[in-house]
Each structure stands twice: as structure tokens, then as C-alpha cells.
Amino acid sequence: MKPLNIVLITVDCLRADVLTRLQKHGLADGAHIAKLAEKGTRFTNAVTVAQSTAPSLVSILTSSYPKTHKVLMNGLSLDKATGPTLPEVLRSHGYKTSGVISAEHLSSPFGINRGFTSYANNSPFDMVYYFLTKFSIAGKQLSYILNVIRERFNIFKTAWTDADKITKRAKRLLKKHHHSPFFLWVHYFDTHQYASEQEYDQKIKYVDMHVGYLLDYLKKLDKLQETLVVFTADHGEAFNEHGHPKHGWCLYDEVLKVPLILYSQSRLSAGEVANQVRSIDIAPTILDMAGLPIPLKWEGKSLLGHINGKTKDDLVVKVISTSGRVNIQCIRDGRWKLLRYPQEEQLFNILEDKDERKNVIAENAQVANRLRKDLMDTFDFEASEELVDESVKRRLRSLGYFDESL
């Protein structure tokens, strides 16, 4: 059997109801994401382990919770002791590993490029800026001056990159590496930048178009047949369902649930998996499908058993708020979901109350106690914005992070 090529496509702030949203606005006809879902294996109950970009994506690449890899929020670096990463494992087995990222807090200085043969950073300016902040007081002062100039004269303002450029970079790397087994990670950021819910949906359609361009290029290279395409998101997005916008203030399902589709012409049949699975299970599943050993240190599990119907378990997911704005903890076991705030707790029966409207903790004290103990055994820390360097905060505010008005 030929080696399995892998393309991992992640989209920022993409809700689990992406297919419904495309259909609602008349955008579903010919949608490439819909075609992947129709022909691939779609997980209808996939949950992220972090509700901000870098912590979530690092969790996917390392199959570990933020507590393990130490990227507790945007602006922090991957812990050197964490590993191996998915690209490190694949590279050790002869894969050419490439990453194309679209936001500066995913750039190389944060260590997320570990194991990649090629890593297309958001912009060269990001590299200069962050290396200056690391080495000396004079470097930090110079980086501050450069940032002031950048903001004052509106130059080098490349905190994120449009899908068009991202797709072109990805195609160049595919052309370069397609003669060997390859792993390509592409992250689209466009859906993070919107002014209204209607514009958000239009951004989904725009990203969908570029997903199509990427798949068409794989066909042109005659590589789609032996390529596993994994499509998912870092986290969802809230539109005030519970009084909160965006994704920094809550751990309700509009933020935690994500799309997850696995597509392979040669190795997977079309189907759906309704059991709860986690973003940390993606990397072990990729290795299992490629016939490679799964590192013992990884915290996720392969989902092949769920795909072939041999496993029906709901995998328990635990989440701690990774925005630094509020301290919230969550555990979700497939039927029950417990949210812990500093001053209160909420318990939802998510099988009967999918919109999380009725707090049933008073009549289910034993369930709450069990979940609380499991959660407290895992999370004995809080994420805090004080962990992030001020120079990094200044750069990320242009993307809406560390903004108390949100």
C-alpha cells in the first residue's frame, strides 16, 4: 500500500453548524466543505479542548491539553519538553512536513513550527519583531519603536493573512514536496475577521472556495486518491446565544463544538459518527490511518474504532478558559456538562437540553460531584494574561485579543 499523504485544514472560529449556515444563506450549492462531509466521515459531536486559537491548534498538533503543552493562551510558546509533535513523528518516518499559517501568534518564535520541514510564517516582519523582543532590552526598545512606526504610518500591518495568499503558499509547498510522502497543515484566519454575522457567513463561503482550490490542486498533482484530508476548526464562535459575542468569554457549545471531517478516497467510506470526540484525538487518528505508532505520551486516542463502528464510547473532554479574561472550567461527558465559574456552577443535560438553557445542578448533585472531582484532578491552575509579555500583547491587540471591550 502506498504511503498516506495528509492534509490538515483548520479554520479559525468556525462553528460546528457550518453546513447549516451555508444552506441557510443559500451558499451550500457546490460548497466544497459540504462535499467533504457527504463523501467522508463526519463527526457530529466533536469538541475542542481550548477556546482560543494557539492553545487549541497546539493541542491538535501535540495531542495534549494546554496544561501539558503550556500554551495556555495566545502569545505563549510551546513547552520544549512537550512532544513529540505530529509533524515530528511524521518527519521521522520520511514525510515532508509543511505548515502555512495565517496569524502572527502561530509564527515560528512561539515554537509551533517544531517538526516542520517548511513553515510559511504569517510575514517576515513577525520574525524580526519577535526575535528582537527575546534577546535584549535594546531589542525590545527597537521592537517597540518599529511597532509605533508600523501603527503610525500603516505599514507592515500583517497581523493576519488573507486566504488567497495562504492557498497560494500551500500550493507552492505541495508542488515542492509532492514527490515524497507529505503532511501539509493549512490554517485559514478569515472567519476571525468580520463585522456582522452575515459577513461571518460570507467569510465561510470565501474560505470554502479556497478549500476547493486546494483540493483541485491535489487532483492536478494526482495525489488526492492517496491523501487523507482532515477538516476542522480551532474553536467555534458565539453570537450572543448566552449573552456573549465571539469566543473569549464563555465555554458554551457554540464555542466548544467544531466541525470535524475525515476524507480519504482510498481508505474511508462515507458516514457519520455521533459519539463525542475531542480535538486531541485528531493526531492519533492520523497516525493510526497512516499505519504509524502513536506516542505513549499523547493524551488523545485514535478514532478508527469509532469510524468502523467497533467503539461507541463518548470521550470525556475537559476545558479551561484560555483567554485569560475569565476563569471558567468545563467537563463534558456526552450526556452531562458541568461549567464551573468562581461564584457559581451550571450543570446541563446536553442530550435533552442542547441549547444549554436549564441548569439542573440542584436535582443532580451526585452527577455534579463526580464531574467536579474529575475536573479538579485535572486542572489545578488558572490561565492569566499576566503570563504574556506586554510587547506580544501590543501586537495581538490588532486582532482583538487582550481587548477588554470585547
Describe the secondary structure blueprint for this structure.
Blueprint (H helix, E strand, L loop, with lengths): L4 E7 L6 H7 L7 H8 L1 E7 L5 H10 L3 H4 L16 H7 L3 E5 L17 E3 L3 H12 L1 H17 L9 H15 L4 E7 L8 H24 L6 E7 L4 E2 L5 E2 L6 H4 E7 L7 E3 L3 E2 L3 H8 L14 H4 L9 E4 L8 E4 L3 E5 L4 E5 L15 H14 L11 H7 L10
Parallel strand pairs: 1-5, 1-6, 2-10, 2-11, 3-4, 3-5
Antiparallel strand pairs: 2-9, 6-9, 7-8, 12-13, 13-14, 14-15
The whole-number mean of residue pLDDT values reads 85
CATH class placement of the domain at 5-123 and 158-315: Alpha Beta
**Uncertain regions: pLDDT < 50 for 5+ in a row?**
none
CATH homologous superfamily heading of the domain at 5-123 and 158-315: Alkaline Phosphatase, subunit A
Q: What is the C-alpha radius of gyration, as a whole number of Å?
A: 20 Å
Class per helix and strand makeup: alpha/beta
Question: What shape does the CA trace take?
Answer: globular
CATH architecture of the domain at 5-123 and 158-315: 3-Layer(aba) Sandwich
Number of helical segments with 4 or more residues: 14
The amount of beta strand, in percent, is 15-25%
Count of beta strands: 15
CATH overall fold name of the domain at 5-123 and 158-315: Alkaline Phosphatase, subunit A
Note the run of SSEs as H and E. EHHEHHHEEHHHEHEEEHEEEHHEEEEHH
Q: State the end-to-end CA separation.
A: 51 Å
Helix proportion: 25-40%
Largest sheet: 9 strands, mixed
